[in-house]
Queue: 2 jobs
Job 1
Amino acid sequence: MIPLLNSRPVALLLVLGLPVLAGDAPAKKDLRVFFSHNCVVCHGVDGSARGADGSRLKGQDFTDARDMKGLSDSKMAKTIRKGLFFGKRMPSFKSQLSEAEALDLVQQVLRKVEKGKPVYSETPLK
Ligand code: HEC
């Protein structure tokens, strides 16, 4: 018999230890939240590049299907990490987003925006 496996503390550790380890895995960024914190000033809460009063903001209108057709996912992800005009028109998000996260942000957030519908709302609409 292997004494180690028969000892209770080890068995207990195995049972209790697994969920603890799983909980330690880095949490995946919620990219909608990231958008709401970092992009709305120029791209609007719904991605339409309009302010609450309807004024035109500086950024790209992600709800404009024609404009969006001309932009590839990879080009947009690149711009997000690089910024525009040396970070003057749009800051670089390289230090906050990996290449994979930038691409996810494009495909899962920017490509799915709807005019008038906030990308993320702290108080979910019922
Ligand atoms: C300080 C203002 C500002 C902020 C903040 C900002 N952007 Fe921009 N963004 C711009 C401007 C200006 C443009 C260019 C718009 C145009 O050409 O009509 C742009 C363009 C883009 C484009 C089109 C890129 C291309 O290749 O042409 C994408 C995608 C984009 N922004 C994503 C984001 C995301 C995602 C965030 C937040 C993580 C963000 N931006 C934050 C100002 C901003």
Job 2
Amino acid sequence: MTRPCFDVRDAVVVITGGTGGIGSATARELLRRGAKVAVLDLHPDTARIAERMSADSAIGVVADVRDRASLDRAVAEVVDRFGGIDVAIANAGILSRSATLRTTSASSIPSTPAWTRSSPAAANSCSSVPYSPSSTAWAPSPTP
Ligand SMILES: NC(=O)c1ccc[n+]([C@@H]2O[C@H](COP(=O)([O-])OP(=O)(O)OC[C@H]3O[C@@H](n4cnc5c(N)ncnc54)[C@H](O)[C@@H]3O)[C@@H](O)[C@H]2O)c1
């Protein structure tokens, strides 16, 4: 199976829960691929954690995804630093606190994107697709 890989160079990506396990790994991979990354998290050291990821290409802002005003402030800070936002990854608080894929029933996550069900081999097998700010196909279904 071949899936598209998006070229994220210079895309500004916001990731919530970006100091946690999956969030920080995703942030680091996006930075490795040339994206600018805004890490939003409850963690009080979020700014310092993001700076350690990349002083030039990452920004960390303390924000609570349950609090609209806090998100508005964080977005304003990100836009001020990077000039806009191209992609938002809603990673924080998507399942209950202790949940993992092993302990979560499939029926409780009916909209799980296809990529979370891909094997590691499939994840590494993809063809390059140029990043486009107007693209709406950020998490596409695998091509047959
Ligand atoms: N680890 C797994 O196996 C697994 C599987 C499926 C889904 N998930 C989900 O993926 C997400 C990330 O998982 P993880 O293992 O990296 O978790 P994690 O606990 O390592 O990281 C979660 C991060 O989200 C932050 N956070 C929590 N509530 C927040 C809020 N209200 N506002 C902003 N930030 C908040 C935390 O401070 C933490 O840094 C979680 O929502 C989890 O439920 C995890």
